[in-house]
Amino acid sequence: MKELVCIVCPRGCRLTVDEDNGYAVTGNSCPRGAEYGRTELQNPTRVLTTTVKVAGGMHRRLPVRTNRAIPKGLLLAAMEEAAKVSLTAPVEAGQVIIPDLLGTGADLIASRAMPVAP
Amino acid sequence: MYELIVIGGGPAGLAAACRAWDAGLRRILVIERDRELGGILNQCIHNGFGLQRFKEELTGPEYAGRFITMLQKTGVQVQLDTMALQIVPGRDGAPHQVHAINGQEGYQVLETRAVILAMGCRERTRGAISIPGERPAGIFTAGAAQRYLNIEGYMVGRRVVILGSGDIGLIMARRMTLEGAKVLACVELMPYSSGLTRNIVQCLQDYDIPLYLSHTITDIRGHNRVEQVTVSEVGPDRCPIPGTEMVFDCDTVLLSVGLIPENELTKGAGIAMDPRTSGAQVYENMETSIPGIFACGNVLHVHDLVDYVSAESERAGAAAAAYVQAGQEEPADHIIALKNGEGVTYTVPQQIRLGTQARTAEVFFRVNRVTKAAAIVVEDADGKETARFKRGHLAPGEMEHIALPAAALQSASSPLTIRIEEVPQ
């Protein structure tokens, strides 16, 4: 039995996961909590949010995120991939910046549009 | 003349302006001092926004983007790079004046029927909490560091100690770590964190960053740049305990020690304030003590979820539209004041006006300690229990909310007291 705090939403449910019983989750208030409890003990994942370099835009950095959660162990390697990116404005919101990031199947996408500097 | 001027183009101002437009107002102006709309959300690049509102986990820029797109579909006017300097309330039905300045229009005196205050809040600084020690470079509020890192593209330090466990501090602990810095400790004066539990887990525990509860920084040393920070344990009286000092070699201190609603304009207009929230006193429709001037979002009280800011601001937008359309404030049959009882630190609204139509009133408040199982009890002036709500976990870092049923309000005598009753498990 393992106790966890669910991070899916701000509610922060206190979960109990039974590893010996098919990772049965109790204490969750929604199905997403049960899903979190199961994956957290077997293959923990996180959505990565960071910024990449952008030239000629309104700002010098473009916020980006993975369009779904990637294995937690790959976060630092993913940061290194993001550090290699150098874009030029304009960028559209949702534009794919790195497809299939590190073979995870997740794309790194733009969190906002970056218009050309006025 | 405008029907409505909204001061601030962050999440509160955007939601208020959109709703006022939907309610039928057509001459609306949003005044924003930054060069783009979206407010602080633009630098909050992490996800977790919008679960209540959109049933999706969005980043700050995405959440702001939804509302900016909505606003762009309306005819709401926006002045960017513009600073509102003063609000002069109109007396006896005369229009209110907003004084504002920018590089294109110069000094403007704008007349309007209604005003919505949506200026947000600012961070408490080192000066506000009087940390002893030297005054080298390398001490930032967490939000300032967040802006440097996420928008301006500057790394603010390599070895970091964070004072305060508010959400921005926790988020910055993770962000700095991902960018290659070493976060040595997160230090919290209180015996509990003021941040959301999920942020303790995903920002500190995920990266093995120690959280020292009941500790504070008692010395900062450094000639040009921060070199060393001393952290001490505090007793129940929150005073440092001699002999418990720990020394950290670091180059950066981030402060996440609270937010203060930014109410210079509010006070200047002579609007009645609430010392508990540092925001204006409002009625159930977000109207302040001056008819036609409304307040919403973090300028009113500091929220932990932007979803609640949007909902509150939409109430303000709808109420401002109703005020303009009726040409006067809503007539009230009687007014019920709300008081905070045992375990509650403040309530918003502070007063509920009961009109001819009975309506449910939403009340937001914070508790002053952590409880595992509790009941929120509402009693009227005669000690009669008006309503009771069961709750599981309650914590000061998480804003609470109840909906007072219309029927209960109609029969209650003012004031109503809201208190927390601990329930034995």
UniProtKB/TrEMBL annotation, chain A:
Pfam families: DUF1667. InterPro entries: CPE0013-like_sf, DUF1667. This is DUF1667 domain-containing protein.
TrEMBL record, chain B:
Coiled coil: none annotated. The keyword Oxidoreductase applies. InterPro entries: FAD/NAD-bd_sf (IPR036188), FAD/NAD-binding_dom (IPR023753), Metab_Enz_Cyan_OpOx_G3PDH (IPR051691). Residues 3-306 form the FAD/NAD(P)-binding domain. Pfam families: Pyr_redox_2. Keywords: Oxidoreductase. This is FAD-dependent oxidoreductase. It comes from Gemmiger gallinarum. The lineage of its organism: Bacteria, Bacillati, Bacillota, Clostridia, Eubacteriales.
